[in-house]
Amino acid sequence: MVNEFDKLKAGKLLLASANMLESSFKRTVLVVCEHNERGSLAFILNRPMEFKVCEAVSGFEEVEERLHMGGPVEVDTVHFLHSRGDLIDGSLEILPGIFWGGDKNELSYLLNTGVMMPSEIRFFLGYAGWSAGQLEAEFEEGAWYTAEASKDIIFSDAYERMWGRTVRSKGGEYQIVANSPELPGLN
User: Fold this and answer.
1) How many CB atoms sit inside 10 A of residue 64's CB?
2) What gap in Å lies between CA 77 and CA 57, rounded to an integer?
3) Which family does it belong to?
4) Is 60 exceeded by the pLDDT of residue 184?
5) Pairing mode of beta strands 121-131, 66-69
6) Which helix (H) or strand (E) holds 167?
7) Mean pLDDT in the chain?
8) Helix or strand or coil: residue 33?
9) What mean pLDDT is predicted for residues 32-60?
10) pLDDT-based confidence at residue 134 (cuts at 50, 70, 90)
């Protein structure tokens, strides 16, 4: 496996390697929203929580979609990805057609009036963050891979299969990695 840190940028996927056993990131798929000389910020895509947005986020009482654990940093903050940057001021495009953040009051209004559908948004509690040099060191240790992101992956509900499918899509030796058991020592 090669160190793919140089390929990392906003809009890419970050895939936990099969060697990543730390529970917060084991077999996770994250979308990178910010990556620069100060560090990196991403959201875990395949860690849905048991409760719904309407149960945890004020102003979004009509949103029956599940809330997602974005990462272990600042878990008392709410973040969102969406596909309607044309309607929400302050949105940052992280890849074509996918936006991070923006005005939460506008978002609430657009959802409550039916202009936007809940399927166009993914809500997260917290985020995954790395300071300068930290993520690069983890890549050097073989903890992460990268992959191309897409709207289909970001808004997918196939949580259980997301990591395996995404790693497998890289081809070659990654197909073997994707099929490896979670705890090979128990075989």
Assistant:
1) 11
2) 10
3) Belongs to the UPF0301 (AlgH) family.
4) no
5) parallel
6) helix 159-168
7) 92
8) strand
9) 95
10) very high
Number of domains in the chain: 1
What whole-number distance in Å separates Cα of residue 28 and Cα of residue 75? 17
Domain that holds residue 142: 5-177
72 assigned to some structural domain: yes
HSE-CB of 95 using CA atoms within 13 angstroms: 17
What is the b/e burial string over 147-158, where b = at least 16 CB atoms within 10 angstroms of the residue's CB? Answer: bebbeebbbbee
For residue 179, the Cα-to-chain-centroid distance in whole angstroms is 21
State how far the Cα of 157 lies from the Cα of 159, in Å rounded to an integer: 5
CATH number, position 74: 3.40.1740.10
Task: Dump pLDDT digits (tens) for 67-89.
Answer: 999 999 999 999 999 999 999 99
Residue 67 lies in a domain: yes
Q: How far apart are CA 154 and CA 46, in angstroms?
A: 9
Whose CA is closest to 17, among 133, 182, 128, 127?
182
Domain assignment present for 184: no
In a domain, 187, yes or no: no
Percentage of the chain exceeding pLDDT 70: 97
Segment 35-39 shows an average pLDDT of: 95
pTM over 0.90: yes
